[in-house]
Write a structure and sequence with these properties.
Number of helices: 10
Helix content: 25-40%
Strand content: 5-15%
Number of strands: 6
Structural class: alpha/beta
Length: about 270
């Protein structure tokens, strides 16, 4: 079945877009296209699109180094000064750390985060509170799983630890925004637990402890800086179009096209 296309129009974007995924996802030689039809839709609109190539289970320090190399290669290939980053979930944390740690403000025109747990993930708190997660056997199993997943620097234990609300509070106190970069944080919320059965129980848990969420990240965690909610009852996974179909009547790649259009209007 041919993929659905929105009415194409040329987007006047000065800099290319780098898509940066979160945990679980892969964008290098993966059998599953975690970005669905989003890259093709952007390309059809004249946008140059690249992937971040980060690890699915890498911590933000190691992923920032991978992303640094990726972006440096893009800048050299296109002979351009900057890129725009659109990052999903933990990819937003990786990108924020890259900009701060490696003084990349001059190379990043904008960072748009989508469903990123800026204020920490309550689900990570829950996992970290379980005694079994801290045993040597569990840590060994997690390490093996990460390597089987194909990561270069898997660190599942610390990925979860760093995403707890306490650690992200420390992160936010240290990793401050760069004034040279335009930041915006977008997020989604499911209307109820039945919107995406993959997140049925996690949605109910988050609703109890934090209120609305996308099934993984609460709205209160995703709200950071210049923030706004994407309408439509879209889950944490559905927002990256892995289902390659409309969600609640919404053409998901169209959301990313609109992001690119707005960035273009701002001169990015």
């Amino acid at each position: 079945m041919p993929r659905e296309k929105a009415q194409t129009e040329n987007i006047n974007l000065k800099y290319p877009i780098v898509l940066v995924h979160g945990i679980v996802a892969h964008d290098r030689k993966s059998l599953i296209n975690f970005w669905g039809n989003i890259p093709e839709a952007l390309s059809d609109s004249g946008v140059k699109v690249f992937f971040g190539n980060t690890d699915a289970w890498g911590d933000y320090e190691s992923n920032a180094l991978i992303l640094k190399k990726t972006i440096e290669n893009i800048l050299a290939e296109l002979n351009t000064e900057k890129v725009n980053i659109i990052a999903h979930s933990k990819g937003g944390i990786d990108s924020r750390y890259l900009i701060w740690k490696h003084d990349f403000g001059g190379k990043i025109a904008s960072l748009t985060t989508i469903c990123t747990p800026h204020n920490g993930a309550e689900i990570a708190d829950l996992i970290y509170s379980q005694k079994i997660i801290h045993t040597k056997q569990t840590k060994k199993v997690l390490s093996i799983f990460g390597k089987l997943y194909g990561d270069t620097n898997p660190d599942l234990y610390n990925v979860n630890y760093h995403l707890t609300t306490a650690k992200m509070k420390e992160f936010n106190e240290k990793v401050i925004p760069d004034k040279k970069v335009f930041y915006q944080s977008l997020y989604t919320t499911m209307k109820n637990a039945f919107d995406d059965l993959m997140f049925f129980y996690s949605y109910l848990y988050l609703y109890k402890v934090s209120g609305g969420s996308d099934g993984v990240v609460s709205a209160s965690s995703a709200e950071w800086g210049n923030s706004s909610r994407i309408e439509g009852g879209i889950s944490h996974a559905e927002i990256v179009d892995y289902k390659k179909k409309k969600i609640s009547g919404i053409y998901i790649p169209g959301i990313f096209i609109n992001i690119a259009k707005e960035l273009g209007k701002m001169g990015f």
